[in-house]
Design a protein that fits this description.
alpha+beta; six-stranded mixed sheet
Length: 184
């Protein structure tokens, strides 16, 4: 229940944040058109640039700090990573249930670089005859930033990179929700 209210609060803050940005941009646009229409005052682009810079710098810092001092909320690859995780939400491919019970199971992870920061990893389980009977695809995202780790007893330290998996972005990736499909 607490998670719902936290998500609702984040949604409300983001909504008002974008409404605020949109209203500031509209204000500057109307100010420019008003000065062009009345031609009594000249448009000083230097002051407009200063005001936009003074407005956008705190916005940039706010996005940087809310992302855990990382650029993941400003990175389009992060949103592609999230969509890939939701697209393959818990898909498990099983060829034959009778093969599953045999011994000498071999697990082979195969990785493929999709983008600069996104890696697709396929976990396959094979029996001794090299027949794939179980396959799970998951994705990993390299998140760069400044992350404070540790605790008071063990000491605090900084990390500058963390690897996010599909389990890190949402709590919906549970084993009970997996969809079973058969291979052909």
């Amino acid at each position: 229940m607490l998670e719902f209210f936290v998500n609702l609060l984040i949604f409300i803050l983001i909504f008002f944040f974008f409404v605020f940005i949109f209203s500031i941009i509209l204000y500057f646009i109307f100010k420019i058109f008003y000065k062009l229409k009345n031609k009594t005052k000249t448009i000083n682009f230097k002051t407009i640039f200063k005001k936009l810079t003074l407005f956008l710098l705190p916005v940039y810092l706010l996005l940087f700090l809310t992302g855990g001092c990382s650029y993941k909320y400003m990175d389009p690859q992060y949103y592609e990573f999230k969509s890939l995780c939701y697209f393959n939400l818990g898909k498990v491919l099983i060829e034959d249930e009778s093969i599953k019970n045999k011994t000498n199971i071999i697990v082979t992870p195969k990785s493929k670089q999709i983008k600069d920061r996104i890696v697709e990893t396929r976990f396959e389980r094979k029996n001794e005859n090299q027949v794939v009977y179980y396959r799970v695809n998951t994705y990993f995202y390299d998140n760069y930033g400044i992350f404070l780790k540790g605790d008071e007893g063990a000491g605090l330290y900084f990390r500058y990179m963390e690897v996010l998996s599909c389990k890190n972005i949402d709590k919906k990736f549970k084993k009970d929700d997996w969809q079973v499909e058969t291979l052909e």
